[in-house]
Design a protein that fits this description.
Helices cover 39% and strands 17% of the residues. It is of the alpha+beta class and 352 residues long. The longest helix is centred in the N-terminal third of the chain and has 19 residues. The radius of gyration is 20 Å and the shape is globular. The two termini are 21 Å apart.
Length: 352
């Protein structure tokens, strides 16, 4: 990605962003959760869901489209199932509590299922499955999103890019197996930020609002996202709307508000989390031992042309994490300017 500039220590950035959300009336703890989540995404190299979105979440709080201090309600449905009303708080705060509850249920009962409604965009889905892997759980996290992808056979955006994530422990606790992917060909946020930076995007990722191929990030963001794998990606985006929207009691069928550009009301995003202890079928550490065997077998396979090694999902992000932790996080010029503006508005001393 072009236009990335100077590197900054992640702790300085985290403390700076925490101050922004304290100013927006979030508690000190909740501000820390939001700031840490955004910075962690950048440390992992998932910049589209990180620091660049700070002003987006702040604006939703400022315009009272999300609550700074929600009264989150937990309802026990069955011994292993809970339903959470997020009271329109920021998704990071609600999802953080939801995954903690899901892990707790799994530890006690072997499996935990938590449905969430009245939430908001929760950032990088990998945040939550990774917490589960650290507690010896296999985990699935689903969420729905604002309309961007048309159902197969249509030219009208109706379902979200709706990321889904899966995670499980490996023999290395620092490097869990993590899948976090949208049902579109690319994360939608990357189109918006490409437009801000005046960068062209590859053809084939999206269409403009008239259904024509485009390499303009702004026209793509305002237009039609293309699903990965054609009808398969389109089907998955529909599934996500069902399990995270209809099933949880959240908004669905094109009713989720876009967090970046739609400030007409609350988003009512839904999440579904499932955690299962790794020892429910095989006791002790058999799961991790077999994961180690499986990974080693894959890594010994013949390499495709141009590849030096085979990485399992989650490894590239861990490599980014180690590098950025040591060298600092690169901040692009447009994000730096945006944060400077916000700091000046809130009378916070800038770190830039």
């Amino acid at each position: 990605m072009k236009n990335f500039g100077q590197r900054y220590n992640h702790k300085y950035i985290r403390n700076f962003i925490q101050k922004i959300f304290i100013k927006s009336k979030l508690s000190k703890i909740d501000s820390y959760i939001v700031a840490s989540s955004l910075v962690y995404a950048d440390l992992k190299g998932v910049w589209s869901h990180g620091i660049a979105r700070t002003s987006v979440y702040y604006k939703r709080i400022e315009q009272k489209l999300a609550k700074a201090r929600p009264k989150i309600k937990f309802k026990k449905i069955f011994p292993s199932v809970a339903h959470i009303d997020g009271d329109n708080g920021l998704g990071f705060i609600i999802a953080n509590q939801a995954i903690k509850k899901c892990i707790s249920l799994a530890k006690k009962n072997g499996v935990g299922v938590v449905g969430v409604h009245n939430s908001n965009h929760f950032g990088m889905a990998a945040l939550y499955v990774e917490k589960a892997t650290k507690n010896n759980c296999i985990c699935w996290v689903f969420t729905n999103a604002s309309k961007a992808i048309p159902p197969h056979g249509s030219m009208t955006p109706h379902f979200g890019t709706s990321p889904f994530a899966f995670g499980c422990p490996t023999n290395n606790p620092k490097k869990p197996f993590i899948i976090d992917m949208a049902s579109s060909s690319v994360a939608r946020g990357k189109l918006k930020f490409a437009a801000q930076r005046g960068e062209k995007i590859p053809f084939g990722l999206a269409l403009d609002k008239f259904g024509k191929p485009t390499n303009d990030g702004f026209k793509a963001f305002e237009g039609i996202m293309l699903p990965f794998g054609g009808m398969k990606g389109a089907a998955i985006s529909w599934m996500m709307d069902i399990v995270a929207g209809i099933f949880t009691g959240a908004a669905h069928s094109g009713k989720v508000k876009n967090p970046i550009k739609d400030f007409s009301g609350s988003s009512n995003v839904g999440h579904l989390m499932i955690c299962i202890r790794t020892d429910v079928f095989q006791k002790g550490s058999f799961f991790k031992k077999k994961m180690k065997t499986g990974i080693l077998k894959v890594k010994k396979l013949k390499l495709a042309k141009g590849f030096k090694e085979i990485l399992y999902p989650g490894e590239p992000e861990y490599t980014n994490y180690v590098k950025n932790l040591k060298q600092g996080i690169q901040i692009s010029e447009d994000v730096r300017v945006d944060l400077e503006r916000l700091a000046k508005k809130l009378k916070i001393k800038s770190i830039f």
